[in-house]
Sequence to fold (192 residues):
Amino acid sequence: MGEVGGTWFTDDIERVIVTEEQIREKTEELARKIAADYSHVPTVLLVCILKGAVMFMADFARALGREGQAVELEFMAISSYGQHATSSGVVRILKDLDRDIAGRHVVVVEDIVDSGLTLSWLLKYVASRSAASVEVVALLRKPDAIKVQVPVKYVGFDIPNEFVVGYGLDFAERYRELPYVGILKPEVYARV
Ligand code: PRP
Fold:
């Protein structure tokens, strides 16, 4: 699906899962939906979960702006013990919200919902800070990887349960700058 493009990472990509154009179109579609749903809310508070969601946050916030929806941006960084959040739900906050979110209408911006454990913890955390409402927009979701059901109201693409990189998503901190989402060739893993 789509072209892989010619740059340093081209040779490492086996296949593109979501193209740059698909991301752009879907981001606009999600922004239209959310702007309509929040038309009664003067300012939506977007909470980006670093680092993976940073590309989507930047594009999504601007798409909402084009729809006439005012937003404020907040960023959180959390570290799960191990690769992902544990089933105990224990995560460490590396960077907390800068402001009080009590009474605010929060939309959590995620790049991907994999097991759902990160979001499950996060939604409880945001609720505990007395937000007026909280919903999630996630560009990608892996339905076959889910371990805990989390209410994700706005989803861009359901993708297969394969390791993906690009558009914020990394492998060993690399490939985040790819403009599309793709799958790495097996030999890339063998190199590390
Ligand atoms: C990824 C992604 C989500 C989380 C999803 O972050 O950005 O936050 O994992 O996985 P889950 O549904 O299984 O909890 P990661 O921990 O890889 O950190 P990063 O965004 O800084 O790369």
Remarks:
- The CA atoms of residues 107 and 135 lie 5 Å apart.
- Residues 49-53, 80, 84-85, 110-118, 170 surround PRP (CB under 6 Å).
- DSSP finds four helices and nine strands in the chain.
- The beta strands are 13-18, 43-50, 70-80, 91-95, 105-113, 133-141, 154-158, 164-165, 181-184.
